[in-house]
Automatic annotation (TrEMBL):
One of its GO terms (molecular function) is glucose 6-phosphate:phosphate antiporter activity. InterPro entries: MFS, MFS_dom, MFS_trans_sf, OPA_Antiporter, Sugar-P_transporter_CS, Sugar_P_transporter. The keyword Ion transport does not apply. It is found in: Endomembrane system. It comes from Endozoicomonas montiporae CL-33. This is Regulatory protein UhpC. SUPFAM superfamilies: MFS general substrate transporter (SSF103473).
Length: 482
């Protein structure tokens, strides 16, 4: 057997990163190469599904839970980024400076990352239907209260509380995607869901700018909050718990997906504490992904939070034009998520690191282009924002998905929360620390920091890429011998 051959081959060698990874980390590549040819990207079950009734129920709820998490996370994203879109007005009208905005951002991201980790652990034992709806309702209330405030410390306090409830959004979504969609199709569906970031990020700047310009910045916050309250009620209708708690077979058995079945069987029957420490805390692969996520989020959050200010200060753009560039950034991210997810399924058989590496090269080149290309026309800037969005959202999505896939099936929320904890440490670095860099070194310091982070992303991915290539090659060699 492939697994026995690989075990014998490595038994006399010192442990590599791949050898010390969880068993499923190895199994994934032994199965996935042979699956690359035979498995097609489809949400249809195989012909041996248990019954027509189960098939109908599966198809119905897969569609509805996906719609629920998509619309719900769009609302989460709008209420998370609403402050960004009114930042230039707060600086102009209330006398806030970059350090004030940076401090609010840092407090938000530290709290948000911590909340995602804690809520990830809780969500693994909770019903995502109620967990996600409650978080969205409360973040909507906070946005409305923000619009009723005027002092810096009220802003900072409310936005920190908002960060805590924002952390209730991602883990339920990752739990649903991990349990309703199987391995050989998950890249497409996760990528499609991840575009909820971009839909929210594309709609919100234009829509909220309308309220800010015509009625005042307070009404921008009111609009975001009311939208979240309405969508939280929709979630109660659209979302459901995992298939096994609805009397359905696991998605791996329903689709006869061998990769998914192997994942479902890994560590089966272990107590919760053992699952958490073995497949999350002691998982070296997750630690490497977490380090990479820090850098990805420095770049992503820096561009999305400071990009409109860069355009207004350096290129003299109006608020509407500057926020429109952020919409273009999100449109690029929308397309990048789809290409990254579909490509990792179709071209690399469910292996995420090769596509991660390709997109990381694009991040480095597009960030350097925004900094160094001498042409300063508005449409050139829009094109560069589009490219940054396209490339940066690929790793942002793939790393989160890979974390779930390399952990235990019952620890999807904890695994995604673990890497997200580090991601938002990176996001926090894009707040106050990056504001200090800009105060001292200007926008050149800003872009030098982002270019350095982009380069380091590639350096961290290389060990993973080598491990995957070696693993796939071994599985392919064994496949030829059978």
């Amino acid at each position: 057997m492939i697994s026995q051959s690989i075990k014998n081959k490595h038994s006399n060698n010192s442990k590599s990163f791949f050898d010390s990874a969880p068993v499923f980390f190895k199994k994934r590549y032994q199965v996935s190469y042979s699956s690359m040819v035979s498995d097609k990207l489809t949400s249809e079950p195989p012909c041996n599904a248990e019954s027509d009734a189960i098939n109908r129920k599966y198809r119905y709820w897969r569609l509805h839970v996906f719609i629920g998490i998509y619309v719900g996370y769009t609302a989460f994203y709008i209420t998370r980024k609403s402050l960004t879109y009114i930042t230039p007005v707060l600086i102009q009208d209330l006398g806030l400076d970059k350090t004030d905005i940076g401090l609010i951002g840092t407090l938000f991201y530290f709290t948000y990352g911590t909340s995602k980790f804690i809520s990830g652990i809780i969500s693994d034992r909770s019903n995502p239907r109620y967990f996600m709806a409650a978080g969205l309702f409360l973040t909507g209330v906070i946005n409305i209260l923000f619009g009723l405030s005027t002092s810096f410390w009220a802003f900072a306090s409310l936005w920190t509380v908002n960060a805590f409830f924002q952390g209730w959004g991602w883990p339920p979504c990752s739990k649903i995607l991990a349990n309703w969609f199987s391995r050989t199709e998950r890249g497409f569906w996760w990528g499609l869901w991840n575009t909820a970031h971009n839909l929210g990020g594309a709609i919100a700047p234009v829509a909220l700018s309308f309220f800010v310009v015509t009625l005042g910045w307070q009404f921008g916050m009111y609009a975001a909050g009311i939208f979240a309250l309405v969508v939280s009620l929709i979630l109660l209708v659209e979302l459901r718990d995992i298939p096994s708690r609805m009397g359905l077979p696991s998605v791996g058995r329903w689709r006869n997906d061998q990769l998914e079945i192997a994942h479902e069987q890994e560590g089966k029957g272990l107590p919760l504490k053992a699952i958490f420490f073995k497949y999350v805390i002691s998982n070296r692969y997750l630690w490497l992904l977490a380090l990479c996520y820090i850098l990805v989020y420095v770049v992503r959050i820096a561009i999305s939070d400071w990009g409109n200010l860069y355009l207004t200060e350096v290129h003299n753009c109006s608020l509407t034009r500057a926020n429109s560039a952020l919409s273009v950034l999100e449109i690029g991210g929308f397309m990048g998520c789809l290409v990254a997810g579909w490509g990792s399924d179709w071209w690399f058989g469910g292996n995420r690191t090769p596509m991660n590496t390709i997109f990381s090269i694009g991040v480095l080149l597009s960030v350097a282009g925004l900094w160094l290309i001498p042409v300063s026309g508005y449409f050139v800037q829009l094109m560069l924002f589009f490219l940054i969005g396209f490339f940066v959202y690929g790793p942002q999505m793939l790393i989160g998905m890979a974390a779930v896939e390399y952990s235990h099936k019952e620890a999807a929320g904890a695994a995604s929360g673990f890497v997200s904890l580090f991601a938002y440490f990176g996001a926090a670095m894009a707040g106050l620390p990056l504001a200090f860099v800009m105060e001292s070194f200007g926008w050149d310091g800003f872009f030098i920091t982002l270019s350095t982070c982009s380069f380091l992303i590639l350096m961290i991915l290389l060990p993973l890429l080598r491990s995957e290539k070696a693993s796939i090659r071994e599985g392919f060699d064994q496949k030829k011998l059978r």
